[in-house]
Amino acid sequence: MKMSLLNSSVFVLVLTLSFSVSWGALSSILEVTPDSEDFISCLESNSKNFASDSQLIFTPANASFLPVWEVAIQNTRYLKPSTPKPSVIVTPVNETLIQTALYCAKKHGYEIRIRSGGHDYEALSYSADVPFVMIDFTNMRSIDVDVANSTAWVQTGATLGELYYAISQKTNTLFFPGGTCPTVGVGGYMGGGGYGNLLRKYGAAADNAVDVRFVDVNGNILDRKLMGEDLFWAIRGGGSSSFGIVLAWKLRLVLVPPKVTVFQINKTLEEGLTEIFYKYQYVAPTIDRNLLIRAQVLSEYIGNTTKKTIRVLFEGIYQGTIDALLPLLDKKFPELGVTRQIFEEMPSVRSIVVFWGLPSSTPVEILTNRSAITKLNNKVKSDYVRTPIPITGLKKIWNKFMENDESALLMMYPFGGRMNDYSETAIPYPHRAGVLFQVLKSVNFNGQTSDTTPTSLSRLAWMQSLEELLTPYVSKNPREAYSNYNDLDLGVGNANYKEASVWGERYWKRGNFKKLIRIKAKVDPHNFFRHPQSIPVFLSPLSSFK
C-alpha cells in the first residue's frame, strides 16, 4: 500500500512531547501512572525502536492524553469526566507496534479497545469499565486506489470521506458503496456490514470487501487466504473487533456514471404528506435500483405560530441524468411532485457533501477535514420495516412526534434492489430480502449540559415511548436491529446463549449468531477480544443451548 495524498489532514500525535529511550527518563517523560507502568515497561522491553514508539504512547498523566482521547469522539454525549478512559492510548504508525501492544495487554491483564473513526454510538471503542488499552488508528489511514483493477486498499483509520476523496482524485467513474457520514472510520464501519446510497444497486459495504489484513489473538498477521473463509465471513458484518484487529481492507470499487442526479424536496401535513408517505413505502423499495430516496421525519412549528406540523425531507440520488430521472418519477411517484428545478447533476463525491447536509457548492476537500464536520450529541436506535405502515399507523407516529420538543429524528432508508439478491447468510449482516426500510431513530441532547438533565431524560423517555408505539409496524421474531448502531438497551447478558440471544439475534438472527459464536470459539477461545456486546464464548458447548 502507498500513502494517499491526505497530508493536509493527517496529523501524527507526536508534536507535544519529547522523548528519550532510557527507562529512567521515560518515567518522567511519559509520566507513567502505577496502573500503566507494567504495560509501558513491556512495550519498552519488546520494542526494537522504543525511541520512536514512545512518541505514540499516552497515559492519563500526559498533558496530551485527554486531547488525544477526545479528538475522535464523534458523539459529544460522552465528552464528560465520568466517561471511563483508557489506562494507555497507543496511536501506532505501523503494524509492529500493534502486535507488541496486543502482546503486552494480554500479558498484563488489560482489555483492548480499537478505535478507527470514533462513531461508536455507545462509546465501546474508547471507553470501558475495566482497565484497558485503546489502540487508536488515527495515524494509520493510507488509501491506495487501483483504478485498473477497481479496488482500493484502505487502512482502518481512514474515514469514508477520505476514501471518497481519494477515489475522486483518480477517477469519476468508480466509487465505493459506503455511507454518507464522512467521518465514519472505515475499519469499524465494514465490521458491522455498512449501508449507504448505493446499497440498492451494489449491496452492503461489506458485500464489497475482497481481502483484509488482520491481527489475530496470537499476534499473527493474516489475509483472507491465511485466515480462511469462516473468519473472513465473520468479520464482514459480525463485528470485527470481536475476533481481532483489522489493519486494512481491500475493497471492490463499483461503476458509477460521471455525474449522478441529486434532489431534495420537503412535504408537510398541509401538503398531503400522509398519503405521499404511504405511497413512498411502496415505491422506494421497488423502483429502479439506480434510484434511492431516503426520508427524514421531523416535527416543527409552522412559522411563528404555536401550531406544529410534520415535515419529511425526501432526499434522492439517481445513478443517471435528470432527463432519465424526471420521467421515471413522473410515472412511478407523481405524488411527490418533483420539478426539473430541484434536480442537480454532480459527481458522486459531491453527492456525499450534499447528503451530509452541506451546500453543493462546498469544496469536496471538506471530506478530508475531520474537524470541519459537525459532531453529534444523541442517542440512536434502529429498526427494520418489512410491511408498509398503514395510514392509521403513520398518523400515530405523526402524533407522537408532535409531542417531541424538536429533538427527534426518524430516518428511513429504502432497501430492495440488490439487497434482495443476497441470502441473509451471505455475510453476518442478515437484513436482506423482504426488508423495505432500515430505520434510524434519534434524539439529541442539544442545549443540555449532559444526557442526564431533566430535559435529556425526558427526551430519552420519549424515545422509549416511540419504541413501544412502533412495535406493531416493525420486524418481529426477532425485532431486527443494526449492529453498527449498537444499543446497550437491548441487553448485555452473555453468560449463556439464552442471555446473549436477547441482543445477538436482533443484530444477526439466530443462524448467523450461532455461526459467529462457533467461529469465535475457534479463533479466540479465551475471549480476549471482548466488550459488552461482543460475540461471546461459552464454557458449555453451544449445542446445549436451544
TrEMBL record:
Q: Where is the signal peptide?
A: 1-24
The record, for Pfam families, names: BBE, FAD_binding_4
> Ranges for the FAD-binding PCMH-type domain?
82-256
Q: What Gene3D superfamilies does the record tag this protein with?
A: 3.30.465.10, 3.40.462.20, Uridine Diphospho-n-acetylenolpyruvylglucosamine Reductase, domain 2
GO MF annotations in UniProt: FAD binding; oxidoreductase activity
Q: Which keywords has UniProt assigned to this entry?
A: FAD, Flavoprotein, Glycoprotein, Signal
Required co-factor(s) are:
FAD
Into which family does the record put it? Belongs to the oxygen-dependent FAD-linked oxidoreductase family.
Q: What is this protein called?
A: FAD-binding PCMH-type domain-containing protein
Q: Which organism is it from?
A: Lactuca virosa
